[in-house]
């Protein structure tokens, strides 16, 4: 069974399939409402850098996770943990399964 794949680049560059990090961060809940099987966000640190603080970033991600569970989406997040401050990685991995 062939399925269409919806994808876009997280970038401030203006292009057909680009979305600025702040726009994506603000629309994560809308993304979870779409009829998707998998949500993959690579380069999550781009969203982290535009969030006003870790708490707001974390709350958006956990809301996305909860909506993904309700809609039965797979949620895959990729982040460079070196960009996070002390303790933030531990908080994320307490809520999201870490796969090395």
Notes on the protein architecture:
- The protein is of the alpha/beta class.
- It has five helices and four strands.
- The strands form two sheets. It has a two-stranded parallel ribbon. A two-stranded parallel ribbon has the order 3-4.
- The longest helix is centred in the middle third of the chain and has 18 residues, at 54-71.
- It is globular and about 45 Å long.
- The model has no long low-confidence stretch (mean pLDDT 90).
Short description:
With 100 residues, the chain is of the alpha/beta class.
Secondary structure: elements and pairs:
Layout: E1 9-10, E2 18-19, H1 21-26, H2 28-33, E3 38-41, H3 45-50, H4 54-71, E4 74-77, H5 88-95
Parallel strand pairs: 1-2, 3-4
- Could you name the ranges where pLDDT drops below 50 across 5 or more consecutive residues? none
Largest sheet: 2 strands, parallel
Determine the strand fraction and express it as a percent band.
5-15%
Q: How do the SSEs run, as a string of H and E?
A: EEHHEHHEH
Strand tally: 4
* Assembly status: single chain
Strand order of the largest sheet: 1-2
Report the end-to-end length measured between terminal Cα atoms: 30 Å
Q: How many domain units? A: 1
So what's the overall shape?
globular
**Estimated structural class:** alpha/beta
Kindly state the percentage of residues in helix: 40-55%
